[in-house]
Design brief:
There is one protein chain. With 331 residues, the chain is of the alpha/beta class. It contains twelve helices and eleven strands. It has a seven-stranded parallel sheet, sandwiched between helices. A four-stranded mixed sheet has the order 1-4-2-3. Helix 8 (191-203) links the parallel strand 5 and strand 6. It is elongated, with a radius of gyration of 29 Å.
Length: 331
């Protein structure tokens, strides 16, 4: 009678397993030679190669123009502009806005206002530019500007800015036979920084600025004033989702460079200045967001002294734009 086995015990026979002689040799063979830097997707060289492949693919699709016709057809509509007008009040603010050629629609003057030099110059500038001038009662002006504002008897209304579509900025540059150079803002909320970036973009041959629809500054009267009139000739586009917009631009052959203190390369070592570029600038405190950082083809650092922690968004964008412009002019 066979002896019952212990429950759970293995019934396999001891001894060598047939066909196991090669397993030890396979374990000792190793993983082969180390891949080249450009073949590693996480390496900066690999990112540059992937970006070059995207650019070549985009050019082949469009017959060498660098813009894909399919991307134009699948393009989402740009956000509708807000019909609410912005009110700028106060004698100094109104005069500075008119001097900066902010596109005001109406100048309001309180009845029986004391006419000083600022009011006289504001009236003169408005008349020369064809801006409507209306005289209203002081209570009505107070209601229009808000209870807590000090309007000093004068105000102007500025119509809501009409934004372009981000991909249209790329198309316009290519149609002119130029290499696109754009700046995108990630979490920048100060209108003075936006105005300074618009001014620098115009000064160094850029083709436009991109702002996200959420958690970002828009083109306000303050941004107009800081731009010193550059906002009148430099288009600003609004992106419903900045990360998706950057990915769409990459599909069109545009290289995405992020500015950050812990970058993959230093700005003087940049080798992509002659390519279609969008430079992404983050906020001074938080920097670039995680998703935007992962979308960038390269993260570039601006060399600064150790005593300075960081540069604000306006200055960082100006330095990067100057370096790209200098390298392009040297080609």
């Amino acid at each position: 009678m066979a002896k019952p086995g212990r429950p759970g015990a293995s019934k396999k026979k001891k001894g060598p397993t047939v066909g196991s002689g090669g397993q030890g040799r396979q374990a000792l063979e190793g993983r082969g030679p180390t891949p080249k830097a450009e073949d590693r997707s996480w390496h900066p060289a690999g990112k540059r190669k992937a970006a070059n492949d995207r650019l070549a693919a985009a050019r082949s699709r469009s017959g060498g123009s660098g813009s894909s016709g399919g991307g134009q057809q699948g393009r989402a509509r740009s956000p509708k502009k807000n019909n609410d007008s912005e009110v700028v009040s106060g004698r100094n603010s109104v005069l500075e806005a008119l001097r900066a050629k902010v596109p005001a629609s109406t100048l309001y003057i309180a009845s029986r206002i004391e006419m000083d030099d600022r009011v006289k110059e504001s009236l003169s500038l408005a008349t020369k530019r064809g801006i409507a001038v209306l005289e209203i009662m002081r209570p009505e002006l107070d209601r229009m500007t808000g209870e807590n504002s000090v309007n000093q008897g004068i105000a102007i209304t500025v119509p809501a800015y009409e934004y372009a579509h981000p991909l249209d900025l790329v198309s316009r540059a290519i149609d002119r036979g130029q290499t696109p150079l754009l700046v995108a803002l990630d979490g920048v909320t100060d209108p003075r920084n936006l105005g300074a970036i618009i001014r620098s973009t115009a000064a160094f041959g850029g083709h436009g600025v991109i702002v996200p629809q959420r958690r970002s500054v828009g083109v306000t009267a303050a941004a107009w004033k800081t731009s010193a009139g550059a906002a009148a000739r430099t288009p600003v586009a609004m992106a419903p989702n900045l990360t998706q917009t950057l990915k769409s631009m990459k599909a069109e052959g545009v290289f995405v460079l992020g500015l950050d203190g812990d970058g993959d390369m230093m700005l003087p070592d940049l080798e992509l200045a002659d390519r279609p570029l969008v430079i992404v600038v983050g906020s001074e405190g938080k920097g670039l967001s995680r998703l935007v950082t992962e979308t960038c083809d390269a993260i570039v650092s601006i060399p600064i002294s150790a005593a300075t922690e960081s540069l604000n968004a306006g200055i960082a964008a100006s330095v990067a734009l100057y370096e790209v412009s200098r390298r392009r002019s040297a080609l």
